[in-house]
């Protein structure tokens, strides 16, 4: 479990995914939050909901009024057993889901209060604070369930949870093997499904294709290596699963908006992937 403050870059970089569920609260400033093909303008008090390992996303600050967030990320197991219903806001088709809860809505105001309480409680570390954090996490997820309501999943929630669970071995396989020349057949084998059923499961559940999920992982890893190492572009391309330097340059430039070398040049001046240890806390509940 992680809780910490973050100020996004003032220029857009490639979207990424991670294994944890995430709730973000804009504390100040302005900017944009990108989820796949969706773009949300951000203002103080807005809340954002992010699924685990599914929907690519990235925040960007306004150059004049940079945004600052507090992000709370956690594994589904942190909610405890027999509380699957609280996961409902995080199980969605990205093309049918509103990730932003505007600041003027009651749910955003409640979540803002709870997130600030969470930060204060953690920093003070008073007696039995772990149990208080667990209670605040349950309240946060309950507010989200009430806000999105039964329409959040566009159907039977148990069916959606089952599909979400069915996808996890495939998503885990992609995270572990995207650097290799994996195919739909490989992912299907990890899911014990046919290729056609696998492709349908990804597109129907997530609203995005299997190839796009694999590409997102490869691009995010390439961005990390470009920013954090001096390895040659050709070596990075092959290390991230691209079959040629030409395909790497084409996909990278189409998605990120700049070439790999230009991205590296910019990253030399802005620590895009570095996290400030003083601003992020890791919790074990």
Automatic annotation (TrEMBL):
Pfam families: AraC_binding, HTH_18
InterPro entries: AraC-bd, AraC_XylS_family_regulators, Homeodomain-like_sf, HTH-like, HTH_AraC, RmlC-like_jellyroll
Keyword terms: Cytoplasm, DNA-binding, Transcription, Transcription regulation
Claim: Disulfide bond is one of the keywords in the record: no
Signal peptide as annotated in the record: none
PANTHER family: HTH-TYPE TRANSCRIPTIONAL ACTIVATOR RHAS (PTHR46796:SF13), HTH-TYPE TRANSCRIPTIONAL ACTIVATOR RHAS-RELATED (PTHR46796)
Name recorded for this polypeptide: AraC family transcriptional regulator
